[in-house]
Amino acid sequence: MRVLTTLSVVVLASAGIGHAVLTGLDADIARVDPFKDMKNRPRAGHGMNVLLVGTDGRDRISQAQRRQYRLGGAPCHCTDTIMIVHISEDRERASVVSLPRDSYAMTPAHVDDVSGERHHGHPLKLNAAYAEGGPQLTVRTVESMTRVKIDHYLEVDFTSFMKTVDVLGGVKVCTAGPLKDSYTGLDLPAGTHDLNGGEALQYVRARHVDGASDLSRMQRQQRFLAALVERATSSGILLNPMKFRDVTRAVLGSVRADKGFGTDELLDLGRAMRNFSPSSSEFTTVPIGQMGYAVKGVGSTLRWDATKSQRLFKALRDDKPLAAHRPAPGSDAVKVPVAPSQIRVQVENGTATAGLGKRVDSALASTGFRTSRVPVNAAERTVRRTVVAYDPRWDRSAKSLAAALPGSELRAVKGLGATLKVIAGSDFKQVRKVRAAEPPRAESGVVRGDEVGCG
């Protein structure tokens, strides 16, 4: 993820290295003015809020690297990743909130960044705000949605990300199961891996590892950020002025930032964060209330859970730890590879028993699975053993769903796609509670940096 490296600048500054090492480096930062003429902004809270956005920038990567790391195609004028990073007023905690790029958003009235045409507020996907109105409309839209005042804006692209990972000597990640994505070329077996810049870019960009798509990708980005912090704070790089300068230059060389974010701000913040570590950080994704929320002219979007998201953003405004809101996982639930909330399911009634499909659909939905809520009749109505049909690319999701249906049969069907199918048989009795076996998933709560690293 491109924006991960920007937060690492803050961490790297914690060495307390003198101003002389960094003097002049902020001249490499391209400046933008995302706060120009902004009115009616949210009231400032405590601490500091940084809006981090990741953009494409593949046009600045060599042709050989573009082929090696599957970066073909034209770069888009849009944000690929959006995060709010809150640094507590006491400088002892960093809270990172991922905002899905497909989030349903309503823009404030604004002037088009390209045509100069004035627009009234209208619906769009959050990442499209950048294409329409640049950094300024992105900041205004995020502030309107969250009521969190943004203090600084940082924008990073592919180039900065890859260079930073390489100058750090690589970053270690670990995976509970194999990760493979034909789109980015990611192919990691289960275990621990030391990733270079290009491999790390594949790891954080992959969206086709499982049916969770962008939500799964954001969780991987959060894990990578924790690993990046661990690498920066434990490797001795912070104590080597020249290495520190090289890392900082790699980051700042392809960053765009607001005019108020410079060397002095980095050093002031860094000196206050000398004891920063992965356990000082916490990560979450804004709670989603409805997946696949269809909007005319926009397409399928993610609609935030109004109550839960308001609670989350109030914690940022009040400078409170997000972990205080973490729900305790159910002790009676069976552990599975993928969280139910990431698995889409279509239920079919494979028997002549009226209402069985609806009963199975409701039971799965109440356990957290993303069912269609519109069960249908199967072509065959004499099914005895319940079947979980799945595309082989989503085998981990299939195992999780089958665990919730004791005695069911797993049946691989190539080309079925991301939505799994349950054909309810006459043996159906109940749905068993399941939960993700890996560290707590970001969409269900908050995780600390030391909970998502290899340790």
Number of helices: 12
What is the name of the CATH class of the largest domain?
Alpha Beta
Strand content: 15-25%
| Rg over CA atoms | 23 Å
The level of helicity is 25-40%
The figure for the number of domains is 2
**What is the average of the pLDDT values?**
79
Question: Strand arrangement, largest sheet?
Answer: 1-14-9-2-3-4-15-26
Determine the structural class based on helices, strands and strand pairing: alpha/beta
Q: Which shape, going by the Cα principal axes?
A: globular
CATH topology of the largest domain: Aminopeptidase
Distance between the first and last residues' Cα? 21 Å
- The CATH superfamily of the largest domain is LCP protein
| CATH-defined architecture of the largest domain | 3-Layer(aba) Sandwich
- DSSP strand count: 26
Unreliable residue runs: 1-7, 9-17, 325-331, 438-444
Main sheet record = 8 strands, mixed
InterPro entries: LytR/CpsA/Psr_C, LytR/CpsA/Psr_CW_biosynth, LytR_CpsA_psr
Family: Belongs to the LytR/CpsA/Psr (LCP) family.
Organism: Streptomyces davaonensis (strain DSM 101723 / JCM 4913 / KCC S-0913 / 768)
Pfam families: LytR_C (PF13399), LytR_cpsA_psr (PF03816)
